[in-house]
Design goal:
Strand content: 5-15%
Strand order of the largest sheet: 8-9-11-12-13-14-15-16
Structural class: alpha/beta
Number of helices: 29
Helix content: 55-70%
Radius of gyration: 38 Å
Shape: globular
Number of strands: 16
Length: about 900
């Protein structure tokens, strides 16, 4: 009997082992294909993002070369091309770090350096940078093609991979379609400026090629995609978008007509509908086309998942088939022996129940010893399969721990194989869940300190303020470190990171476990305390925070000193929003820092009134920028020899619709606390360029710029672009900066000023002597002019200081201008001390450009210009920056 039963059983087991081994190998290969697919998708997205960066960089440059202000384009079309360029570059940086092209980051930065200089170079540089972008993109494309070839070759070794191969072809076509759409949008816009393409082709030719390429990709996807393909459905939805239809109509008209008449700046209003169709709809189409790529990527992931699932299911089916085959073989063998027909029938019935999935019944182990052994083996196999079913049901319900920690005792080799398969599946699910938890943690926590980040802290504050069960006030403490910048500057950012982590730990210990501690960014932290009975309790917590922060920090054997200022806001049942509370705490900490370090300030009614006033003032200033309520006034600067006008200083005035003429002292200091000052600077620079263009033979104009603007990335462009737009020689503009604003970030400020001087712009240090830079820093700064503050001009005791400044300026080949000159005696004194130029009411008050022609050489010697400011001004000129 053993011979009859053993031969077919051994053959079935051997065959089944081979099939199971093949199915498991196929599952492993499917997992490897998934990794290749992930790398392919990452490289493809990197390529598309690089194309976007190139196109938006080209758009910014095209606007600059033709005199269009990107900010004006944003205002008209709603598309911020500079922000889109920066966003694309950030996405490229994010993707390239984890790709095979990470070593190429330095090369990419070199290409960007050329692209960032577009606004100060010419069209040949535009072509060169475009060529370098395209060359880099083609290298990534070659890598994508190589990965695709490897992937198709690996997939070809597995049966039933047609779905995956088809999905990969669709994904490639979708990515190509997105790139063609992006390039077509940029090329269509370029036709309106009459600019050449990036590789030397005309914009019309490039547009025609990209339209054909997009059409070809659409045809390919429609031809090979199944009806339920997510990519196909998304593509059809995209093609029906009004923005894409409008853009397609305009692009087709351009290609059919062989181009359009390039648009001039003065024709923007008349042809605004055309520009909107090309710019806004083109940009919207590019953004929406990414949904097609995303959908194609989901199709690829689905195909890989299906491949893996088929391999897994195949292994299980083969395993069950082997068991059933073994049972059948045993049953057929014992049928030959009549004396065991009945036990054999019961054995066959048991095998059939197993085949049908009935694993609850057991086969009686009676009859000859061989049949009893077979029944025992089948019962063991049935027990293993039943146990496996319970485990897979638990995994399906997400009860991974129940499977891992449960009774995993199995009988026989089949049980061991099943246990190994379940363990592998449970580990995969656990790893996926751990990754999900990690991603959720990273999304809500600061990577450096592991505290809650700004978004999570605001969510916590919103929940606390809106809670219907709270029994007291909610307090927000805004913690701002004092002296942290000095640590970064003198000990490096690594020491600063160590200090931030230590401060984060101390904050948690100081406020207790019930309080929420988060990091807002930089050296700013937030503490949220619920159910605070009185403001005094919140102040006590703030004082504990300051006490904890003030303990010296040891970093690599160096003792570092820190302090903190704390601003407090409480809701007090006022129905205030979380965002408003954070703003109140921010204002309070600002007041605390103004009063000195290590101070706690609670936002009171006076501060809230100031917040409301500031909000109104901010709104009015934004309206003033939109409505062109500002005016540019000019004050003469004269040569000390002959008192002939040598230049003018631009001073801003605000023609308020209700308050009349508002002087800068009433709004500039407020604007300098935010990016509003950058927008005001841009307005002054643009209007100064307009005044210079209207008076080609006139003198130069000096423009004050803020420290915030000086260190911004757009500073050099903001100075040069208006001059180029109005065709003004850069040497006719003088950029005035204060010494304190330069020293806030000496390296960046010096770099920006050096770029301006290389282009011909003159640089002046305004209010010299009032800060802490003094003469020692002049060697490090690219400066042409020193303006001595009016306080030294009026003080006779400061003549020795003025003389020292003049002597130093002579050594450094600098021009010296004295401000605040109000009488003839000051003129003679400053002439004797060697000052080169003079400025003050003695030579003329600030006036609108049309009235600013009165200079010192047109007046009798020794006279003083006593003309007052025009009627309606709320104050005469005060000695503040910007006039």
């Amino acid at each position: 009997m053993l011979v009859f039963a053993g031969v077919p059983l051994a053959a079935g087991v051997a065959f089944g082992y081979q099939e199971i081994d093949g199915a498991l190998a196929e599952r492993t290969e499917a997992a490897q294909i998934q990794e290749q697919v992930d790398e392919l998708i990452q490289l493809t997205e990197l390529r598309a993002s690089l194309i976007d960066e190139r196109n938006y960089a080209s758009a910014v440059t095209a606007l600059s070369l033709t005199g269009f202000d990107p900010g004006l384009v944003n205002l008209v079309t709603g598309v911020d091309v500079e922000n889109e360029r920066d966003g694309s570059a950030a996405r490229v940086d994010e993707l390239i770090v984890d790709s095979a092209f990470a070593p190429e980051m330095d090369r990419l930065q070199e290409i960007r350096a050329i692209a960032d200089a577009f606004d100060i170079l010419d069209e040949s540089d535009l072509s060169e940078a475009g060529r370098l972008y395209t060359e880099f993109e083609l290298e990534i494309g070659a890598a994508v093609d190589a990965r695709l070839d490897e992937l198709l070759d690996d997939a070809g070794r597995i049966s039933s991979t047609g779905e995956l191969i088809n999905a990969l072809r669709i994904f490639t076509a979708a990515t190509s379609f997105r790139a063609a759409t992006s390039n077509a949008s940029t090329a269509a816009l370029a036709t309106y400026f009459g600019l050449p393409g990036l590789e030397g082709r005309t914009a019309v030719a490039e547009l025609t090629g990209e339209m054909y390429r997009a059409s070809r990709d659409v045809s390919l996807i429609r031809r090979i995609a199944d009806a339920d393909s997510a990519a196909l459905n998304q593509l059809e939805t995209f093609l029906e978008l009004p923005s894409f239809e409008r853009f397609g109509t305009v692009a087709t008209d351009i290609t059919n007509a062989g181009g359009v008449e390039p648009i001039a700046l003065e024709d923007v209003t008349d042809r605004i509908d055309e520009l909107l169709a090309v710019f806004s709809d083109g940009n919207a189409a590019v953004a929406s086309s990414f949904d097609v790529v995303t959908a194609a990527g989901s199709d690829v992931d689905g195909a890989v998942d299906a491949l893996r699932e088929r391999a897994q299911s195949g292994a299980m089916r083969v395993a069950i088939s082997v068991i059933i085959g073994a049972l059948v073989a045993i049953g057929l063998s014992f049928v030959l022996i009549r004396v065991i027909v009945r036990p054999l029938d019961r054995l066959a019935e048991g095998a059939q129940r197993i085949r049908d999935g009935d694993l609850d019944q057991r086969i009686p182990d009676d009859g000859p010893v061989e049949i009893r052994g077979a029944a025992l083996a089948l019962n063991e196999a049935t027990s293993s399969l039943e146990h496996f079913r319970h485990q897979t049901d638990a995994l399906a319900r997400g009860e991974v721990s129940a499977v891992v920690d449960g009774d995993d005792s199995q009988v026989g080799a089949l049980g061991e194989s099943i246990r190994a398969a379940v363990d592998t599946l449970a580990e995969s699910i656990s790893a996926r869940d751990e990754l999900r938890e990690q991603l959720l943690h990273e999304a809500s926590h600061d990577g450096l300190t592991q505290l809650a980040n700004r978004r999570a802290s605001l969510d916590k504050l919103r929940a606390a303020v809106a809670s219907p069960w709270k029994r007291g006030n909610t307090a927000v403490l805004f913690v701002d470190l004092d002296g942290f910048k000095s640590i970064n500057d003198h000990h490096g950012h690594r020491a600063g990171d160590v200090a931030l982590r230590i401060v984060a730990s101390r904050l948690g210990s100081a406020v207790g476990a019930d309080a929420h501690v988060g990091r807002l960014g930089g050296d700013e932290f937030i503490v949220i305390i619920e159910e605070v009975p009185t403001p005094a309790v919140a102040v006590q917590v703030g004082e504990r925070i300051i006490e904890a922060v003030c303990v010296p920090i040891d970093v690599a054997g160096t003792s570092l000193a820190l302090s903190a200022s704390v601003g407090v806001s409480l809701d007090d049942g006022r129905g205030v929003t979380a965002q408003a509370m954070l703003h109140e705490a921010d204002v309070a900490v600002y007041e605390a820092k103004r009063a000195g370090s290590g101070i706690v300030r609670v936002c009171d009614e006076a501060m809230r009134t100031e917040i409301e006033r500031s909000a109104r003032l901010e709104s009015e200033l934004r309206r003033a920028l939109r409505s062109d309520e500002f005016e540019l006034w000019l004050q003469p600067v004269v040569d000390v020899d002959g008192l002939v006008e040598s230049s003018r200083e631009a001073l801003i005035r605000w023609r308020h619709p209700e308050r009349g003429l508002v002087m800068p002292g009433d709004f500039i200091e407020f604007a300098e606390r935010s990016d509003l000052i950058i927008d005001i600077d841009r307005w002054v620079l643009l209007d100064a360029a307009r005044v210079l263009a209207a008076d080609p033979g006139g003198t130069s104009i000096a423009v004050n710029v803020s420290g915030r603007h000086l260190t911004s990335e757009s500073f050099v462009h903001d100075v040069i672009a208006p001059l180029r737009a109005h065709d003004v020689d850069p040497s006719r503009i003088i950029v005035e900066v204060t010494e304190s604003s330069v020293l806030d970030d000496l390296g960046r400020a010096a770099d920006h000023l050096d770029q301006l001087r290389e282009l011909g712009v003159l640089v002046a240090i305004d209010d010299f002597g009032t800060g802490y830079a003094s003469l020692s820093y002049l060697r490090q700064l690219p400066v042409d002019i020193i303006k001595i503050d009016r306080s030294f001009t009026r003080d006779e005791g400061s003549q020795s200081l003025v003389s020292m400044v003049v002597e130093t300026a002579r050594l450094l080949d600098l021009t010296v201008t004295a401000e605040g000159v109000e009488d003839e005696q000051q003129v003679e004194t400053l002439r004797r001390l060697g000052v080169d130029r003079l400025q003050g009411y003695h030579f003329g008050r600030p006036r609108p450009p049309a009235q600013a022609q009165v200079t010192a050489d047109s007046r009798p010697a020794g006279s003083v210009d006593t003309l007052l400011a025009p009627e309606g001004a709320v104050a005469i000129d005060a000695p503040v920056a910007r006039g």
